[in-house]
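Chain A, query sequence.
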Amino acid sequence: MAALPILVLISIVIDVVLVVRAFRIPKLGTLVGNGLALWVAAWGMYLAIAYHTNPEPPVIRLLLWAMLCIGYIPFIELLYSLARKITLPWSYYLLMLFPIGFTFAASQQVSHAMHLHLLLILQLVLLSFGLPAWYAIILGRAPEGRALWLPTLVFVQIGMTSWATLPQLSDLQGMQLGFLVWTVSMWLIVEGLRLEQMRSPIHAPHIVVTVTAFMSMWAFVVLGWINADVPEITAGYIVALSTLSAWGGILSVVLPVHLFKTRSETQLTQWSSILGDLALFPATQTPPTPAGLANELLNLFQRACEHVVGLRLSVFDDLLVGERTHYGRTLEDRGLKLGRVYLRGSQRCGPFLKLLAPMVGQRLGEVLRSLDWQVQAHTDPLTGLLNRRGFEARLPYALERAMRERRLVTIAMLDLDRFKQVNDRYGHAAGDVLLQAVAEILERNLRDNDLAVRWGGEEFLILLADSDLHQAERIFKRVRARISELRLADVRERVTASVGLAGGRVPLSNDDIEDWILKADDALMRAKEEGRDRIVIAEE
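Chain A, predicted structure.
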């Protein structure tokens, strides 16, 4: 074993390089670098003294212990920052019994066990924060790389440190071998932190090195206690405890990695399905309704994250499906805010929702623009009002809103009196000018939510949202007055209009609207028969 000192020297150089690499890790570098630097310094000082002095002076021993214990503090701070907002099942805290059991057995073999108790406190604090930080991997809320460095820190570092604190269990040669294993574990810590920061996967060589480090740690502890002059029952107890710790540590690396990769494959399949459905959004071939669009998008988000509870679409009068909370992400397209998806409390949904939200916003914007393009096919080219096809496309929106908000709807049929005479006397061009003028009057006297439709020829259909029959009658008295006041250069006679009204209630279905259109048309015919230039309300 003459080569051991050379290997130790090489390991020290490697440790220094690893400390430098640790300091360069983004965000976490200062804490990790400080902790590892203190531990490397303690090991280096111990080995340097061991080569020249045996035993080491009390002052040096005190300094070594101080460096060893202080080295735990940066890692405790690091794990505390990683463990916040992670709720760990209480059963996991039973793992704290391992260092407690080891310390209890070891303290029986030394005259002054205060340093072991101090080390136990630090280890328990480290473990109390390390367990939730590790559990975040199981929940899919931490990168895969954490499964490499955190179990190594907790199991191998604690195991090797605890073994090294009992000089009667190891000679100089054993300490040198232990330092080599400790160097390997230090590389695993730095490499795991690098993988976590870069969100890179763990590969097979990482697992092989990890298992080697754990089993080497187990061998040192077990051989040390078997060869020590201690009661057989104590040695057996420690061997069993160390075996459970070693295999538990290996499982704490392999199990999260397996779950992480399995979850990644499942998520990839799920995300592919979600993105495929988003590309086909909206799924319906018929003109979509606002609620239909909102529910389809909400279902899409809830498949991506179980914490999504609601969706609001500001482009549809702040239409809300589900719950509204204080947490969520805004949906935008080309700088225009289209709505917001809401989350339960402050729960996070991972990176996919962050990527999905802008994609949904872009797709929703494309759908809305395609609906705008359809307006050209839904608009009467002469008057700029809706045509029948346009009315059929817009009716579901109006009907859904009226049903949702319990709004009254009135249907009006308006017809220009003796319009055929206008065409015959002044020509079709003059008739077109008159129709355009009437359409302008309707647009000026109706509200944004009302629908004005050129139903055919000189006949207009108007859907009044949030109006009963008496309110509708007042509106059309005003409209008829404006029409009779028209003075057109090409039409040199007074123009009048007849109106039939029906409805005035909250519609329960599309059948109600169709029924009111028929009744309003019948009322219009009665107005014509009774002498024109009047309003007739349909009888129920």
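The chain has a mean pLDDT of 84. The CA atoms of residues 42 and 66 lie 9 Å apart.
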